[in-house]
UniProtKB/TrEMBL annotation:
Transmembrane segments: none
Protein name per Swiss-Prot or TrEMBL: N-glycosylase/DNA lyase
Taxonomic lineage from the root: Archaea, Methanobacteriati, Methanobacteriota, Thermococci, Thermococcales
Species this chain originates from: Thermococcus paralvinellae
Gene Ontology MF terms: DNA-(apurinic or apyrimidinic site) endonuclease activity; hydrolase activity, hydrolyzing N-glycosyl compounds; lyase activity
Keywords: Lyase
GO terms of biological process kind: DNA repair
Pfam family, one: AGOG
Coiled coil: none
Gene3D superfamilies the record matches: Hypothetical protein, domain 2
Domain of life from the UniProt record: Archaea
Amino acid sequence: MVSARDVAEILSKIPLQVWNEIVKKEPEWIHMHKFLKRYGFGKFAVLMIVAGLNDYQLKGRAEKAYWPPLSNLLEGKPVPKSPEELINILEEFYSKERFSNAKIRRLKRFLSSSLAQELWTSKPEDVAKDFVKIWYRLAETMKQKGNAKTIAFAMKCLGISLLMAGETNFSFEKIPIPVDYKVKEFTKRLGVEFKNDDDIRNFWSAVLEELKTRVDINMIHLDSLIWQIGTLDRDEIIEYFSEFGLENIGRELVEVLR
């Protein structure tokens, strides 16, 4: 079985600049970045969190079935003046999604919360300073565990919002990788034995801990990479890294896959 150190050894050869480009390839960056300037940071941060909270049990792949249609809907709507107005805008979208009732309840639970109200007028530096506290409050607001996939992913979306705004000084270390199908599949392909999602989280936390001794990244970077390559075949992984001029790293990585 490949170890966390083995994986980190390969991935540590990726330059920081490329890690940052990998994050920009995420669908939530590609399709939502344009709303940052239009909404302003606080409103945009709230939008990104709620979109992250409801990114589950989709009608298809997120990069096609979720983020593009959500973006298209928002483009045709005015900038909301309050979280309540954002509920009205997004209710139209989630009413057509799978598990619509549950997603609308989650939408209203978050956007009616004091946390959403405070974030609505927040500045990037304040969110960065209170990032871990916001994580705890979000889990409490949604009545979920902090390591739940949707909570972790919503925090990733908030972190991406900060990166879009040019804010990098925030702590993401305690927040685990959002364990979804692609992350599970790639973990399996590495031959890692796991009994549950916690084992997967622990493995990737160990990879990140090793990586951070060599390159200044966080779980947003690592999750973005694993999500993007998680279900690619060997040739596609090599091609993916070749786009960054890192074909050799792609070849090294596929060598340790089952």
